[in-house]
User: Fold Lactate dehydrogenase (Oxidoreductase) from Loigolactobacillus rennini DSM 20253.
Amino acid sequence: MAYFPAYTDEEIITFLKAQAPHAAIATDKTTLAQHQSGQYGLGAGDSALLAYVEVADVADIQGVLKTARQFHLPVIPQTTATSTVSGSDALGHGIILSTRRMNKIIDVSREDQVAVVQPGVVNQDLDAAARKVGMFYAPDPGSKAMSAIGGNVATNAGGMSTVKYGATWDAVLGLKVVLADGRELTLGHRTLKQAFGYNLTQLFVGSEGTLGIITEITVKLMPIPFGQPITGVAYFPDMKTLGTAVTEVRAAGVYPAMLEALDSATLQALDQYEGTNYAQNNGAMLILRLDTGDQAILQKLKAILAQFGAQNLQVTSVPDEQAKLLKLRQDMLPAVFANGNHVMEDMAVPLSKMAQMMAYISEIAKKLDVQIYTAGHAGDGNVHPTLVWPKAQKEVPDKVVRALRLMFREALRLGGTISGEHAVGLLKNQWNNEELGPDVDQLQHQIKSLLDPMHLLNPGRKID
Amino acid sequence: MAYFPAYTDEEIITFLKAQAPHAAIATDKTTLAQHQSGQYGLGAGDSALLAYVEVADVADIQGVLKTARQFHLPVIPQTTATSTVSGSDALGHGIILSTRRMNKIIDVSREDQVAVVQPGVVNQDLDAAARKVGMFYAPDPGSKAMSAIGGNVATNAGGMSTVKYGATWDAVLGLKVVLADGRELTLGHRTLKQAFGYNLTQLFVGSEGTLGIITEITVKLMPIPFGQPITGVAYFPDMKTLGTAVTEVRAAGVYPAMLEALDSATLQALDQYEGTNYAQNNGAMLILRLDTGDQAILQKLKAILAQFGAQNLQVTSVPDEQAKLLKLRQDMLPAVFANGNHVMEDMAVPLSKMAQMMAYISEIAKKLDVQIYTAGHAGDGNVHPTLVWPKAQKEVPDKVVRALRLMFREALRLGGTISGEHAVGLLKNQWNNEELGPDVDQLQHQIKSLLDPMHLLNPGRKID
Assistant:
């Protein structure tokens, strides 16, 4: 807060309420404390938060932004607050602007193969609505059951099916956004091909609320593939062997819809948590899925896996058994998280470098004596190491920070990125220069200043 | 040219030659006249062209831009000059900067499923290099055999396989670009997932040389699908029936790799040109392709087509017969072009609106007495009417201009875009306000001014 503020908080709140008449505006300490930090980040929210606002419509958003401009307040856009990088935690004497109540599915069109939604629609709800007309919404982040499309777009969320269907950026055809100055722009189209304007739609995808407030999203839907899906699991002596098998599976043209790798530490955690004995298979587990399985493709897949070192391969087309295998990947997180406080990381490297990246992570774990459990979207080189430390210790231990730093550097050295699908938020924004170089970093700041000259929108995140 | 120029052309050329020492620099009238206008636009190139420069490397590009800054000269980026919208014709007392000699395929990686190329690599050559390692490069514009990846990226080129694999924007993972100020930026990554910086890569995809010069492109490769491809042809009483069948085929989850529609006027032109008798089947022709055909999928496809009004369906898995059917689509253009001077247009509408758009085009043809032949990438709502007028008449007839204007308005009214895959160039840049609205139009200009403050790069194209 400024030393000698021109306005009292009460004056600001009165102004805000008049400007955003349909919004639910909370300013009491209990509610503010509840919303100060998201549950999945590092609890970095600022206790100076002024208001938590759930807007009902575009006019409310424009009112919040007018208030922010009037009183020079940071605005923190948010949908379901499930950021893993503290991307929507409270910041300064600011306003959290949540669009979670704007959760209408405006249109689901089988004919156009698109859906139009408000930002607060939960990913799973959109997918369910699409499935009612024989379509599905492809991007499937781990947070699918709780995170909203607005946040998915803001972070360019990926998921398990990215290997076949792409991440959020591949699904978004158009957006409506409210700029910091209050104007609402319509970007992109409801068409599958577009070659008219600059691609401003994608400038906002992954921009983490720093360039504007997303108010409406037009996405591609995919037809549910014809045929019998199959899901399987296989074990490999080590991650390197698994990596080679994944390369061969991908190159074979069978277009798997999922290729997930779990390392042996993760298998042990799973066994401990669930009373299973996956770790006795040793090495690394691959969970795979074909969503268009015919017999010829399945035979081809089995032959490749056998040739490249897969052990104990099980494949099933029985829905219940498939669900059980898929659940393994979901259960992994609570199993790992049960071991203590944790940070789940997210790096992506070129496909051929995934095994090397995973080997490096294991090496760092031993060298620095840090507990690390690594799972990966093996089909797209996206690695998620979870670093765990004792529950008693609130602060992130130095050796964990050291381990993170070394991993990030290795990912960049291998031609990768330190964020594959979780974005940057508060936790990685000091790495801009490292990952992008000073010229691109500067250009990002120029674009930010162009769209948000007062730097009101999620300042200190993504690029600062 | 300015009334009293500060420098003679000779002085400028001497400076240019010193700055771009590896470039082939032509300033003679014959060569300049040759490069004044591309072959596929409306011959709108400016005869005041100062130099035609084929650069050899990034240093040459930087030298050309330094010269342009020094003498305030327009720079027209170009690869193979096959723009259909006069996007790279000569402009003012400017320099055409061609990167066609920068045509190295730097890397084709089966393991990473990416390729890295220079901008001058012809689309077909990249695809051929990828096929050598069991991959392919998906975007397949009609100009595939002659257009280069640099231009494909600059225009966000689509093609027939977009219906399954997406357009150029879906393939591009990273770019190197030289800005107007001479700095080379590296954007994006060699990774399939990316969620770190703002998506500046896609800001340059489709920017038509107005924001920077593309010097290197990293693209996704797709594995050649396992299985037996099949190609087929079917006839429908009219475009509306065809459109409904296409909707059903798409929604069935069989993922066709091509769904091309030809109208009856086009079939008549084909018959005249090739001595065939396609038009006797009346109505509209659909050419379709599955590149992962198994028998179950094929049966499903046949059942849908029969149910929704297809007549005389022929499907083949014999390679020669497939090639023959595919050639139909290619032969369509010379058959249509043989009828006179022409302009081939490009609009995309929501899938469900394609039949309506095509019906509107036929109606306009009758009403204004304009010869129009319409083909469409029916699977993605992308319509290409070709408007033809007598060879003797050099100027575009008024009624053709009126017809174009009406079509564009109808495409926009239907929620579409007036450019699906051919970009904007010189021929559509007066439609920015109409298609995008004044706020987005203004933002485009702000971004242009940010990246190219002297407006040297392809001025008057895309957004001006």
User: Anything to note?
Assistant: The mean pLDDT of chain B is 95. Residues 100 and 120 of chain B are 4 Å apart (CA to CA). Chain B touches chain A through 93 residues (CB under 8 Å).
